[in-house]
Amino acid sequence: MLHxxxxxxxxKEPFKPATAGQVGMYVCGMTVYDYCHLGHARMLVAFxxxxxxxxxxxxxxxxxxxxxxxxxxxxxxxxxxxxxxxEVTEFYIDAMHADERALGVQTPDNEPRATEYVGEMLDIIGxxxxxxxxxxxxxxxxxxxxxxxxxxxxLSGKTLDDLRAGERVAVGSAKRDPLDFxxxxxxxxxxxxxxxWQSPYGMGRPGWHIECSAMSRSLLGLPLDIHGGGPDLKFPxxxxxxxxxEGAFGGHxxxxxxxxxxxxxxxxxxxxxxxxxxxxxxxxxxxxxLSDTEASYQANPREAEMLRFFIVRNHYRSPQNYxxxxxxxxxxxxxxxxxxxxxxxxxxxxxxxxxxxxxxxxAAMDDDFNSSGAVAALFELASEANRTRGARSAGQLxxxxxxxxxxxxxxxxxxQRPTRYxxxxxxxxxxxxxxxxxxxxxxxxxxPLGADDIEALIAERTxxxxxxxxxxxxxxxxxxxxxxxxxxxxxxxxxxxxRA
Length: 500
What we know:
Blueprint: E1 3-6, E2 11-14, E3 22-27, H1 38-56, E4 60-65, H2 72-81, H3 85-103, H4 118-130, E5 134-136, E6 142-144, H5 160-164, E7 181-186, E8 204-206, H6 208-220, E9 224-229, H7 234-249, E10 254-259, E11 263-265, E12 268-269, H8 280-284, H9 301-312, E13 320-322, H10 324-343, H11 356-366, H12 371-388, H13 391-402, H14 411-416, H15 423-428, H16 451-466, H17 470-482, E14 485-490, E15 494-499
Parallel strand pairs: 3-4, 3-9, 9-10, 11-13
Antiparallel strand pairs: 1-2, 5-6, 6-7, 7-8, 11-12, 14-15
Helix pairs in contact: 2-3, 4-6, 4-7, 6-7, 9-10, 10-12, 11-12, 12-13, 16-17
Protein name: Cysteine--tRNA ligase
Cofactor: Zn(2+)
Main location: cytoplasm
């Protein structure tokens, strides 16, 4: 039986959806004013794995992941770039979708945009005002009265006394209490017209927190089976969602709260100010195809799957440290799995859940989506396939890996693609393996040998072997190895090559 760690109860619990066989899952998505970074990759992949396993377990899943398309940061970006709000958001939504395709993240069942649910937000605000939990301040903003909601802090574990310590009402603030948060922002004269909506409180726009209360209830009803998001959303965003939804409708917002762990960079939080900020596209795009003016890009499939594997092989709740050494290790580990599939052609019989490694895989995933344990089962199958040359083991490996979104490329094509995340690529580009993440990883173009050059050298080596000139044949193998190319001689005189 599936057990999930519930942030609210701080314990693993048996998963029991409100309606047997169905799961409504809401995950807080992106605010679309910039390119997605590696922290976003962690969230996107983690909950993609969750919904994949729920479906594989037989549940009918309605996966909702919202888009915040109205926000102060979006407005600033529009003003700075002299574009309309819609132009900014459409560009970065397209860019986000390009990142999802690169990482093998499946499209949610619903992807609502905040601007489509303003009416529902105003309805909730009206209900809160009727119950004395919302008030319009002198500056026109409508705020939530935090002290009026008895359960505030139950998700994050923060008490009102903790939050009150050191808080002061800012000069000029119209809030009754520094802990109150905005539900509706009164329009400012200098703001673009396409950021303003008519409301009972005058022209304005919704605050950030209210949008998720409106979209989740509208699309999934209450309570949600699962509510998820990144680690930074637990407080105040999710705490405020609870206050809004439960304050307006009673009951409880979600049965299970899930939060993925933080992604660190060289043991520090990723931040532009620290110079360690990196986007998904910077990490996996073919360098020649990367443009700041184009939303779409061509990903390097080998590198993109490496990044997904890097995320999946860690438990979703654990902190994860992004360093060059860790990426090199992830690429090397993924290569070992693909090597097993190249060595032994997998059968197409699907998953045999009675097989020991499949049972270990399932037990791990049923234990709070422990993808780390599931990946360990994949390596056991790879070892067995290599040892026994068994097509069944290779078939199990590929079929189980598909549930994690892994190992679906053709192994020969996979290995013939260059990767920046290998010791040979770094050596060829004259960079240290411990290069700082703030520096660019090597460009694939720095790898000198193209496929045609490699095939020509292999043909020359084959001719040398046929002429029994083994010294020359060994010299060519050494030349290729120095360029990061490994050769596999197969029966029948066939030589396959791969970039190591």
